[in-house]
Write a structure and sequence with these properties.
This protein is α+β, with helices and mostly antiparallel strands and 252 residues long. It has one domain (6-248): B-lactam Antibiotic, Isopenicillin N Synthase, Chain (Jelly Rolls, Sandwich), CATH 2.60.120. Helices cover 24% and strands 20% of the residues. It contains 6 helices and 9 strands. The strands form 2 sheets. The chain has a 5-stranded antiparallel sheet with strand order 1-2-9-4-7. A hairpin with a 2-residue loop joins strand 5 and strand 6. Helix 5 crosses helix 6 (242-248).
Length: 252
């Protein structure tokens, strides 16, 4: 069943003279900003820049916990990171919980997820959320609610971080169900490896006894996969948005 959400999708703002744009890398180029509301372009780009800096600071801390130089991720994966930003709107999932534009609330299902269980693909997701609630993450003891805390971010770990660290850091299964009476708005920024970076285990992985794998939500293993981050991302996106792959990779 499709997720009950809609969103605006943005990437790093790149000019036509950028080598990645000239190479026609998917998801690289200038953004298509809507004309309304005015000022959206400047606000989005300023926010993306500031939160990307937060992500690099977090990766430097993670590097140190792994016994690596603090700039290890910057030098090996994120000198030209894949940065994606989304503004998501989740309408209420329960009938009678309020007005939902362009939807028949009588048809909404209280058992339906706004977005089902999944993990993110890259390194870090830095999420700002409104006060609606509804986010849950899966921990050792099952599903845990992540209530909003004013002035804070939620940081989810991605598949590539799990692969690189041999499971020392595991990607975060999470899901959302908006049971509030109004729309839920969230703002995730994804800080991921460079598109053409070959994602290999970091020097810390394999130095000790490998950690046991846990069963993933999709039944797959990030440790059995190999390739560039672009390969991984396209494979995932093609399953979620099959028509989009035809648009960005015609003839692929």
């Amino acid at each position: 069943m499709p997720d009950l959400k809609e969103g605006l999708y943005f990437g790093e703002e790149l000019g036509e003279d950028d080598p990645r744009v000239r190479a026609a890398l998917p998801l690289h180029g200038p953004n298509l900003f809507p004309a309304r509301p005015p000022g959206l372009r400047d606000a989005v780009l300023e926010y993306m820049s500031a939160v990307t800096d937060v992500g690099h600071a977090l990766l430097r801390g993670i590097s140190l916990t792994l016994g690596l130089d603090e700039r290890w991720f910057d030098e090996h994966l994120t000198a030209s990171p894949t940065v994606l930003f989304r503004i998501f709107r989740y309408p209420p999932t329960g009938a009678g919980t309020g007005h939902v534009s362009q939807l028949d609330v009588s048809q909404l299902d209280v058992s339906r997820w706004s977005v089902g269980e999944h993990t993110d693909y890259g390194l870090l997701t830095i999420l700002a959320q409104d006060a609606s609630g509804g986010l849950e993450v899966h921990g050792r003891d099952g599903w845990i609610a992540v209530p909003p805390i004013a002035g804070s971010f939620v940081v989810n770990l991605g598949d590539m971080l799990e692969r690189m660290t041999g499971g020392r850091y595991r990607s975060t299964p999470h899901r959302v169900r908006n049971t509030s009476a109004s729309d839920r708005i969230s703002f995730p920024l994804f800080l991921d490896p460079a598109w053409d970076a070959e994602v290999l285990p970091a020097p810390c992985a394999g130095t000790d006894t490998e950690l046991p794998e846990t069963e993933r939500w999709d039944g797959l293993s990030v440790h059995d996969w190999s390739g560039t981050y672009g390969d991984y991302l396209l494979a995932k996106v093609s399953k979620v948005f099959p028509a989009l792959l035809d648009d960005v990779m015609p003839g692929g």
